[in-house]
Amino acid sequence: MKEYQTITEISGPLVFVETDEPIGYDEIVDIETPSGEIRRGQVLEAASGYVAIQVFEGTDGIDQDSSVRFLGETMKMPVTEELLGRVLDGSGDPIDGGPDIVPEERHDIVGAAINPTAREYPEEFIQTGVSAIDGMNTLVRGQKLPIFSASGLPHNELALQIARQATVPEEASDEEGEESEFAVVFGAMGITAEEANEFMDDFERTGALERSVVFMNLADDPAVERTVTPRMVLTTAEYLAFEKDYHVLVILTDMTNYCEALREIGAAREEVPGRRGYPGYMYTDLAQIYERAGRIDGREGSVTQIPILTMPGDDETHPIPDLTGYITEGQIYVDRALNSQDVSPPINVLPSLSRLMDDGIGEGLTREDHADVSDQLYAAYAEGQDLRDLVNIVGREALSESDNRYLDFADRFETELIDQGSHTDREIDETLDIAWELLSMLPKTELNRIDEELIEEYYVGGAESEPVEAAAD
Amino acid sequence: MSQATQEQTVDDDGVIDSVSGPVVTATDLDARMNDVVYVGEEGLMGEVIEIEGNVTTIQVYEETSDVAPGEPVENTGEPLTVDLGPGMLDTIYDGVQRPLDVLESQMGAFLDRGVDAPGIDLEKTWTFTPTVEEGDEVSAGDVVGTVDETVSIEHKVLVPPGYEGGTVESIEEGEFTVEEAVTTLSSGEEIKMRQEWPVREARPTVEKQTPTKPLVSGQRILDGLFPLAKGGTAAIPGPFGSGKTVTQQSLAKFADADIVVYVGCGERGNEMTEVIDDFPELPDPQSGNPLMARTCLIANTSNMPVAARESCVYTGITIAEYYRDMGYDVALMADSTSRWAEAMREISSRLEEMPGEEGYPAYLAARLSEFYERAGYFVNANGTEGSISVIGAVSPPGGDFSEPVTQNTLRIVKTFWALDSDLAERRHFPAINWDESYSLYRNQLDPWFENEIDADWSETRQWAIDTLDEEGELQEIVQLVGKDALPDDQRLTLEVARYLREAWLQQNAFHDVDRYCPPEKTFQILTAIKAFNDEAFEALEAGVPVDEITTIDAAPRLNRIATTPDDEAEAFVADLTDEIESQLQEQY
User: How many C-beta atoms surround the C-beta of residue A211 within 10 A?
Assistant: First the structure.
């Protein structure tokens, strides 16, 4: 082990040390302060003669007499199946008062990219029991689907509801014993202690904790530590998924805090900033996190990611949601207006999207009419939304009967399909049946996205002449 | 990456001085700009990007964790090259042309580092059929023989550019590996099936011509309104979720190019997997053979090393040029050029270069135009004609087209397909905005469409454009006063425009029939809507109220033409127009 007492500069989260032997890039260091405290850090830049170290737990108390030990390896996460049921801090040390973790293996937290030829394309439907997601933005195993939210919105409730209700329908019915295969790895980055309690209470109340691994970096924990927390989380998730055959749901909250920490380090290093002061490599950095979702050919398990981010100022063009949207396979928008109308969960389906939906739904997976119904719901709801703007100007009386029907559709869509409450678990068939009930408000001829045969089978209300007549008015 | 380069190692190794992410500096390295070097004990591949005094800066194509100062750097003395030869089609490479399936067999499901693999299989034998005889004169670029590379493509063995040429001294049919000489020339030169070419240099041609043939895409809005020429350039910018990748993939599947090079540059892993899974299953609409038989994939996903992302578009276009030299029409899709530009920005900022706009390097515009200029319709050295069409996706931050990558791209490309998040939100796909998009090839391609499809092609298209324009203006009024306040003829125009949008412009990329629409059918749907328009206005003039015109039973069937099988579409349209005519005429 190489030990030095040659700190030359301390600046924000960074410490510069003179060295006389080569130190590897990304290597882990322990810094011992004069008071005997140990701080962990990582080499950010290795040059002959000096290294720059980013200290995870803050640099306060470090002085030039502190000793720096280079551990000769990159950061590792000790992994074992025993991690299930445990609560760890943001650096992976237990904080639940339980026994020390005896690792089965130690994995590099940076993680290697999955070779695209080794991936298995995700197409296994996950039923979240939330109509807005199952019906219109279907989640599949191995997908990364973030929740785009903003301060003051109930994104955590939604994440918990998904964690609680998520099942794969066939398995739930056919092989009851298989349920234990499902695990949640939860990574909190910079959330408040209160929010953390909410999560923990819910985990404990529903018994979810025993199949969960929880990493907690709270708002008052060192910000720099946040940059390793998601990597610890995903290393654990990959181990459980690809070596222990679990279907792992990873929840990361709040990615905005993670990005702030990145910016802090970038600024301390005096890097040339990209948009709004965030580092130019943020896209690559985020991709290295989000791309660690997926399935691998020939392995049983999967990693599904639901990262949560709060958009600063509700602005979706802000670099954090923007770069995230370009990497993830869709996004779920939590909407302020719907929330104030007390719609729960307040998901705005129009800007939401699941890119992997098309392959995860349909006959044999969900139901034959799923794709067409979802398309038609989108088109009709968008039409209704447009008309709402118009109503504000001209009033409802000035609109045609057909327009009024779309307005009613949009209202009922929100109150009946979306607003299901945070404790209602809906089967996909139920979601689609409600959808048909709503679509049947419109005349058959308006349902141009749906196959004619499907209309015949599912359209509610046999009085066929009635809607046609109405349309002819 | 080429194996041969390693043999030529000269004794001018350097020593690593510092490591910061993908950027490594070395001292005492005797290297030229853009030389390929092997960095550290593990021999990670890198490229020289800056030389200053005794210090050489290198961008490394692999993860650099644990690399330390003091480790050696070995110079190959060669620039970054690709291996060219049979076996590139039906293959998937990473950004520096390492075959991903070979990497998987060597290091498992996760991409490890420090593993090198040749771009083409050096062991495999191919049946070589000569096309010249002993005694024939050949020079650089000429074809000396052929190899059946895949069921779709006959690979032509070319005299490499730069060869002196001469009389053929020996040539024979038979089984050869790519490393064996298949022909020897009087100049003493040997021709092998494998050649190398530096990726950052365009392969030579005789001249560039004005393109006059369309790259038929099977997408109605593209063929119908904004066609791309064979040898043309196009950009697809759009915010996330607006369907860039779906559009790119539809083009890769259905465009009538001989060869498709699909570069997945810094995009999603699962998307590349989808392409790998789908393409072998799907038939090429032209030949009926599996699509992979004409496709070369380059996948450098977003979490793969950033420097290899920077090089992957060059690897792709060099492979495209090689097939163009054989006289093929090649289409290259780059998804997404923004990720490539960001890779440049990332490397540039690590070099602490003075940034240009939004942190991008000042040479961004130059790099983009150099790349797009490698597209075109060319006369090759061997007298054949070949083309490279480049379609670049652009991912502007926040969907804002005023950002540097979009703007610099628009200054070069001649076709612009603007994706629109509003359209995407209402699930109007492809979400290409018909007001903002343009194609500067329209006029030079019209003669082809008029000869091959229908003499009225351009006239009918103009009618569609006018109607959509008028709708745009009317919609602004409708937003203020509601549809019912408009006069009857304008309400009818809105109805016709609605059919143009829903029955013609919209296309379902996931529907078995609708995903590919031949230009004939594109025209048939348009004529059907126009027929409805003409009959409807006649009825209106005859005094029929607009509500009765728009609610005839036959009209909604216009929406069903797109999903009618191609060979039944003509009869369906004829039948439908008759029905519309009779139903409308009944009213007066």
Answer: 20
